[in-house]
Design brief:
Layout lengths: L7 E10 L2 E9 L4 E6 L9 H4 L7 E6 L18 H14 L5 E7 H12 L4 E9 L4 H8 L10 H8 L10 H12 L4 H19 L5 H10 L3 H13 L8 H4 L9 E6 L7 H11 L3 E6 L8 H14 L3
Parallel strand pairs: 3-4, 3-5, 5-6, 6-7, 7-8
Antiparallel strand pairs: 1-2, 2-4
Length: about 325
């Protein structure tokens, strides 16, 4: 079994302005095909499981924590933290490592960020490997946060617990539900703020996990000191439509159609529904390959990981 930690070439922080310093790791074969890997969230971080996707003998991967995330500094800061900032950060990383071109990889919000970067800098992108696709549409947001007729029938008790904290007049759309939660997370009463962050995070976990255990999941989220900070950062983005115009990715497909793209999508993904990836593949055209696998949202689900590893190998093949 490969020891993925042994293949870190270097690590550090990159100052990108306004007090933000991005944590990064340069991993793998320094002469290999270069991949810039985007984690999910917004508000999560990269961890060792991302490294399992790639081959350290073949790939050179730049992993990084986005603004306010993981080991980047300052933690959980929403100041000067927008999608435009993150795209500029990706360019700063490319320039720092003196890369003319690179492959992009990312899942969920990481797929969103990869697509937006590619739209703005198509000449820099050799190819993309995406999974658990999220394209920032009202349908996707309603799927999760106005879920009475989507995923709620699969998790009735959990949905009731999540939605009963929202006044009925705020339940009409996913954005309305999310906005109410975001407001409560910013309450001056720390008990209220933490409760809403906990419930927000628990509902997300329900939709992402394969072997969902209510007791263990609630204990894990409750004991995590970063739960409130991460939820605040995530809702900072979602409250603002991820800082892009409505339909931005779909309306700019012409800019990226020639980029060879691979998407791996879980059939049983309750967080980012498979229909989005299916429709996206139809709209994108022949340069996109969609592989549906019998998995949920997470890259660590075995069927998802196996296919991601296969696609990573073929993505960078001559």
């Amino acid at each position: 079994m490969r020891d993925f930690q042994d293949h870190v070439n270097d690590r550090g922080h990159l100052a990108v302005g306004h007090g933000h310093e991005l944590y990064w790791e340069d991993w793998g074969n320094t002469k290999g095909a270069v991949v810039l890997c985007q984690h999910g969230g917004p508000g999560a971080a990269f961890n060792a499981s991302f490294k399992q996707i790639f081959d350290p003998e073949v790939h050179r991967v730049i992993f990084w924590d986005q603004r306010g995330c993981g080991q980047s500094r300052p933690f959980a800061s929403t100041a000067h933290n927008t999608t435009d900032d993150l795209v500029r950060d990706m360019e700063a990383l490319r320039e720092t490592f003196r890369l003319e071109e690179m492959y992009l990889a990312g899942g969920s919000w990481g797929s969103t960020l990869s697509l937006i970067y590619a739209i703005r800098h198509p000449q820099r992108v050799q190819g993309m490997l995406l999974w658990s696709l999220y394209t920032v549409t009202p349908f996707e947001n309603d799927w999760v946060n106005a879920a009475e007729h989507t995923v709620a029938p699969h998790f009735p008790g959990e949905w009731q617990r999540f939605i009963e904290l929202v006044p009925e007049d705020r339940r009409g759309s996913g954005d309305g539900v999310m906005s109410y939660y975001a407001e409560q997370m910013r309450s001056s009463d720390p008990t209220i703020a933490r409760r809403y962050a906990l419930e927000w995070t628990l509902w997300e976990y329900v939709l992402c996990l394969h072997n969902y255990n209510p007791v263990e999941t609630e204990r894990e989220v409750s004991e995590d000191p970063t739960t409130l900070s991460v939820a605040l950062l995530e809702t900072h983005y979602f409250q603002n439509g991820c800082f892009i115009p409505d339909g931005y990715i779909w309306n700019n497909l012409d800019a990226i159609r020639e980029i060879r793209t691979r998407i791996v999508q879980g059939r049983f993904d309750m967080c980012t529904p498979a229909i989005t990836a299916w429709r996206f593949a139809e709209a994108y055209g022949p340069r996109l390959t969609l592989e549906m696998v019998n998995s949920v949202h997470l890259r660590t689900d075995p069927p998802m990981m196996v296919e991601l590893q296969r696609q990573a190998r073929t993505m960078t093949s001559p």
